[in-house]
Design goal:
Structural class of chain A: alpha+beta
Oligomer: heterodimer
Order of helices and strands of chain A: HEEEEHEEHEEEEEEHEEHEEHEEHHH
Number of strands of chain B: 12
CATH superfamily of chain B: GHMP Kinase, N-terminal domain
Helix content of chain A: 25-40%
Radius of gyration of chain B: 18 Å
Largest sheet of chain B: 5 strands, mixed
Shape of chain B: globular
Largest sheet of chain A: 6 strands, mixed
Strand order of the largest sheet of chain B: 4-5-6-8-7
Helix content of chain B: 25-40%
CATH architecture of chain B: 2-Layer Sandwich
Strand content of chain A: 15-25%
Number of strands of chain A: 18
Largest interface: A-B, 55 and 65 residues
Distance between the termini of chain B: 31 Å
Structural class of chain B: alpha+beta
Distance between the termini of chain A: 41 Å
Number of domains of chain B: 1
Strand content of chain B: 25-35%
CATH class of chain B: Alpha Beta
Chain lengths: 439, 236
């Protein structure tokens, strides 16, 4: 699906407004949209709403063999999927440039910054380690997917609990969630990415661009930072040239924003923890807003099944008997099952043509196959004669036709076999029509 | 969790025919739906059955690639994304079931040479996933305003090892069941549009499950009606 192109007047309007320090949704230059973080029913599932941009992250784990170069460390893998649901421009299956860029940035932000203690994920050195996998699904793209994805990924990792493992000598036992409480991952710090969009060759900048602003921006600067004011990753794309002061200013803004967002994440985690401890149900189902006109929820309902048995038996009795079953299969040799007899084998009956093309519609076995092979031979001869007559093709059109017709007529008589006699005329007709079509 | 109001079930063999005698009442979990929750897709809905939740988004009618266009109908494409990992064979079979149901109910000939794309994202799977996908798909198609000849809903039935029919089973109940069936029921005549089954069961049991699903579908269609009425009402 192609995305609707941005009209020139829309583009001009946006740029003009930005020059006057106005944004479409009324925000200030350094304002973020409203961030809402909710968690799902199982550990490691996190939904993040950044304005209208919605993203879901799920963390999961499994036991695998470690990498040879690092036998003591666990493995982290990230996968950000640009779902076609999020935007009509995203296509299923194709790894677009944006998808590669976002995946790479997410990896750099979370893996290279060593925010998770991978050595604690080791179970048996050199043999079994935990592989933590984070899948980020984009649900709605209204700009700034990177920030939403980074918040979702780190929240999912903070929320995740892995199964407890007991080691007794050589034996390793993995306990299920009912036997022993799962334990959280050890996370050193929370890197969060902040995006800055630049317009008019770096003159104007906006924090947290929405989708329209992203379409008219010149370049994007992404800074991933943690609340201790350590820069985890910085990337500038779009080819804009920034001054040193601009980059410094952006990093200062980023540190303020990151501390606010980290505060939000911690609050959401705490809320979820208290809700779970209180025993209440939590998850996407619970977080559905009830007061909205577009949402409705019902309680558990019962289904009356009093006359189910009667209706079922009546259907059963009035139904027709099932059709005759297929003939029972034969077992000619061990490991071979045969049902039916199939078409008679016709290989080796014709010696003339070597063509192996299978013509469709071989219905009556031998006869039609022989017809087909003859037609193929005629085509062969025809192509040969055509090659010979290539120079004279314009002069002797009629002669060619006659020759070919002669060719056509000759064949059934010379090779006339008794069983082909009846079908020869049909074959001739078909062959001539084929020739005419070829012309 | 399902519970049964009356006495225990008997499981008896009658001349080689297996029969299930269900109780007079079975429960379907609480369900909820929210429509138009995403701003980009033309229609979107999220459907929740107990803890199982699925989000659906619809784009269409839109431009279609020349290789995929059909001259007199719209081309419907269905995508199911699991929560963890990449879509695999199981998702493909779910897509197939959904596509067949949607093609039977949508009026595709109103949009020739166009594409309709239906994307589903599994948010949490606690049993009855395929029926939740069907319900979410129907609500999203309604939200997108696509013309449909009939509505459809999905109902899952499980036959446990001791012969009871459980509607809308949870994941734990599904795991212990002997057979699992999902039916797509249409709204006009309550007939079966699509069925997907797993496990072994007799013809009689199948008919009983179909009858149960038809009963349960009444509730779901009533819910559709209530949601739409609420949406377009002037006062709540």
């Amino acid at each position: 699906m192609k995305e609707t192109p941005l009209s020139n007047c829309e583009r001009d309007f946006l740029l003009k407004a930005i020059e006057e320090k106005k944004r479409l949704d009324g925000r200030q230059t350094y304002d973020y949209r409203k961030i809402k973080i909710t968690f799902g029913t199982d550990y490691g599932c996190c939904f993040v709403d950044l304005g209208q941009t919605r993203v879901m992250a799920q963390a999961s784990c499994e036991l695998v063999a470690p990498k040879d170069s690092r036998p003591n460390e666990g493995i982290m893998s990230f996968n950000l999927e640009l779902s076609p649901m999020a935007s009509p421009a995203f296509e299923q299956g194709r790894q677009s440039e944006l998808s590669v860029k976002l995946n790479r940035q997410l990896e750099r932000c979370l893996r290279n910054s060593k925010c998770i203690d991978t050595e604690s994920l080791c179970v048996v050195s050199g043999e079994k380690v935990w592989k933590i996998r984070v899948d980020v699904h984009t649900l709605n793209n209204d700009g700034n997917l990177m920030d939403a994805a980074s918040v979702a990924a780190i929240s999912a990792l903070c929320h995740f609990r892995r199964p407890d493992v007991g080691i007794q000598g050589e034996e390793v036992t993995v306990y299920g969630p009912e036997e022993r409480d799962p334990i959280p991952l050890s996370i050193y710090h929370m890197p969060i990415s902040v995006s800055f969009a630049f317009f008019q060759q770096g003159t104007y900048l906006l924090v947290d661009p929405c989708e329209r602003e992203e379409r008219v921006m010149d370049g994007l600067l992404m800074i991933a930072m943690n609340k201790h004011r350590e820069i985890c990753s910085i990337q500038s794309s779009g080819g804009i040239m920034l001054l040193k002061e601009q980059v410094m200013r952006c990093s200062k803004i980023a540190s303020v924003k990151v501390s606010e967002i980290t505060e939000l994440i911690n609050k959401a985690l705490l809320n979820d923890k208290t809700a779970r401890k209180a025993g209440g149900r939590c998850g996407f189902a619970e977080s559905m807003p009830q007061e909205r006109i577009t949402a409705l929820k019902t309680d558990q309902t019962s289904v009356e099944m009093t006359d189910v048995a009667e209706t079922a038996s009546s259907v059963f009795q009035t139904a027709e008997a099932p059709p005759q079953t297929a003939p029972s299969p034969l077992v000619p040799a061990p490991g071979v099952g045969q049902v039916g007899e199939g078409v008679r084998n016709t290989w080796g009956l014709e010696e003339e043509g070597e063509e192996e093309e299978n013509e469709e519609g071989v219905s009556s076995g031998g006869d039609s196959v022989e017809e087909m092979t003859k037609m193929e031979e005629e085509q062969h001869k025809e192509s040969k004669s055509r090659k010979a007559d290539v120079v004279e093709i314009l002069d002797s059109d009629e002669e060619e036709e006659e020759e070919e017709e002669e060719v056509v007529i000759l064949y059934p008589e010379t090779t006339g076999k008794a069983k082909n006699a009846g079908s020869s005329s049909g074959q001739k007709g078909a062959a001539t029509s084929r020739k005419q079509r070829k012309k | 969790m399902t519970s049964f109001a009356c006495d225990k079930h008997r499981f008896h063999l009658e001349s080689g025919v297996m029969e299930v005698s269900p109780s007079t009442v079975s429960l379907i979990r609480e369900f909820g739906c929210e429509q138009t929750l995403l701003s980009r897709p033309d229609g979107s809905a999220s459907f929740v059955q107990g803890d199982t939740s699925v989000m659906a988004g619809v784009y269409g009618p839109a431009e279609v690639k020349v290789s995929k266009e059909i001259y007199d109908r719209a081309t419907l494409e269905v995508l199911v994304h699991p929560k963890v990992g990449l879509p695999g064979v199981r998702e493909r079979s779910q897509e197939q079931c959904l596509r067949e149901t949607c093609e039977a109910s949508l009026l595709l000939s109103l949009h020739p040479r166009s594409s309709l794309t239906l994307i589903l994202q599994v948010l949490h799977d606690d049993g009855s996933l395929l029926s939740c996908c069907l319900n979410a798909a129907c609500m999203a198609l309604m939200d997108a305003g696509l013309s449909m000849g009939r509505l459809f809903c999905g109902v899952t039935c499980a036959i446990s090892t001791d012969g009871e029919i459980i509607t809308d089973p949870t994941a734990a109940q599904e795991k212990e069941s002997r057979a699992l069936m999902t039916f797509a029921i249409d709204s006009k005549e309550r007939r079966v549009m699509m069925s997907s089954t797993k496990g072994s069961f007799s013809v009689h049991e199948l008919q009983q499950c179909i009858a149960v699903s038809q009963k349960a579908s009444e509730k779901i269609f009533q819910f559709y009606r209530d949601s739409v009425r609420r949406r377009y009402s002037k006062n709540l």
